[in-house]
Specification:
single chain; mainly alpha; rod-shaped; 89% helix
Length: 84
């Protein structure tokens, strides 16, 4: 269950990072000479990247749990068939 929470937090972070990148790029494209749009781009990219890494980590954990369950089921089948 924790992997789903990690994936959700990663997805939220990716969304916020993407929104920040779009806002900063649009503000720069419109000719904003202020410092704020340029200051947003760095943390927005960091949020996007860290969110993607968190989401991938949650997916890896989810796959490892599925592999473990399948291995346990396969072991049970082998034990039933071999009479162990």
């Amino acid at each position: 269950m924790m992997h789903a929470f990690i994936k959700m937090i990663g997805s939220i972070s990716v969304g916020l990072g993407l929104a920040g990148l779009i806002f900063g790029a649009y503000a720069i494209y419109e000719g904003s000479q202020g410092l704020v749009p340029r200051l947003i781009l760095g943390p927005a990219f960091a949020a996007l990247l860290s969110g993607a890494i968190l989401h991938c980590f949650g997916a890896i954990v989810e796959h490892l749990i599925a592999i473990r369950r399948n291995t346990e089921a396969q072991l049970q089948i082998f034990q039933d068939r071999l009479g162990g």
